[in-house]
Structure formats: structure tokens, C-alpha cells
Specification:
alpha+beta; single chain; 167 residues; 3 helices
Length: 167
């Protein structure tokens, strides 16, 4: 009877330990559910913000194929609007960037004459606002004519494009 009693005691002890483990797991799940419920409004706001940002990036022309023709068109429009005497450009073939997977870069070099620092800033700002996509200024050198406040600009822009995963 001692062995039988010990076996029954051991069995009930195991049952109780399993019940306590289930209770701890259920309590952890309830705590997680309560935390998720408290965080839900903030997450909804964050999700809406991230969705708006994603849509803005998607609509900007950064994701997808390069838009070389549109970049050149925006540069030509800027030339006309700013009434630049001369504006010449060259866009190198697109290359894969080492910065991130699927990130491509196209290098644009342009020269413009009769520019002062303000008009050069205006030209770059106009490109940012009218050209699709995203570019960074790698280098921009303005050589001023000693007889005037204007000079010649030589700039190198990197146009960035993120190509979607190819399946």
C-alpha cells in the first residue's frame, strides 16, 4: 500500500505540475494579448504612416526601372526655366551598387555655364522636385569667372533605383 500510495502521490504531483505549467503559459498568453491590445492604436497609426511612406516611395520613381529619359527631360526643362546658356549632360550606363542588393546607380555628369551659386542651388532643387526618382550629388564644382559673379558648374549626380526582386 506504501508503493501504491507513493505512485498515486507521484501521479497527482505530475498532474499538478502540468496544470501549473499550463496556467503559466495561459497567463503569458493573456499578458501578451493585453499588451497587444494596449499597443494596437499606436501600431495602427504607425502602420498607416509606414503605408503612406511606402506609397510615396513607390510613386516617386525610386522603385522600378531607371527613368533615364525622364531625368534628361527634367534637366532640359530646368535649362529652359532657368534660361541657362548652355547645359550639357551625359548619363553612364546603370551599374549595380555594392551598398545593397538590387540597388542600381546611374551616374549623370552635367556642365552648365553662366551660373552663380544661387542658380546652381535652384537647378538642383528643381531637379529634385520635377525629376522622378532619387539622386545624390556626388560632386559639384562651380568655377566662377573673375570678371562676373557667374561661372561654369561641373556636377556629378548619382541616380538611385531599387529594382524589385526578380523571381
Amino acid at each position: 500500500s506504501f508503493v501504491l500510495g507513493a505512485a498515486i502521490f507521484n501521479l497527482s504531483l505530475n498532474q499538478r505540475m502540468h496544470a501549473e505549467h499550463r496556467l503559466i503559459d495561459m497567463q503569458a498568453q493573456a499578458d501578451q494579448a493585453a499588451r497587444s491590445l494596449r499597443e494596437a492604436p499606436a501600431r495602427l497609426i504607425l502602420d498607416q504612416t509606414e503605408a503612406a511612406l511606402h506609397n510615396k516611395i513607390r510613386g516617386s520613381g525610386f522603385i522600378g526601372s531607371e527613368q533615364r529619359v525622364n531625368w534628361i527631360s527634367a534637366l532640359a526643362q530646368s535649362r529652359a526655366q532657368l534660361q541657362l546658356d548652355s547645359l550639357a549632360w551625359h548619363v553612364s550606363p546603370q551599374a549595380t551598387s555594392t551598398l545593397a542588393p538590387n540597388l542600381k546607380v546611374s551616374r549623370m555628369e552635367f556642365t552648365a555655364s553662366r551660373l552663380d551659386p544661387d542658380r546652381l542651388s535652384e537647378l538642383l532643387a528643381q531637379l529634385r522636385s520635377t525629376a522622378p526618382g532619387f539622386f545624390t550629388v556626388e560632386q559639384c564644382q562651380l568655377t566662377l569667372d573673375p570678371n562676373s559673379a557667374a561661372g561654369q558648374a561641373n556636377c556629378h549626380l548619382n541616380w538611385w533605383t531599387l529594382s524589385p526582386d526578380e523571381d
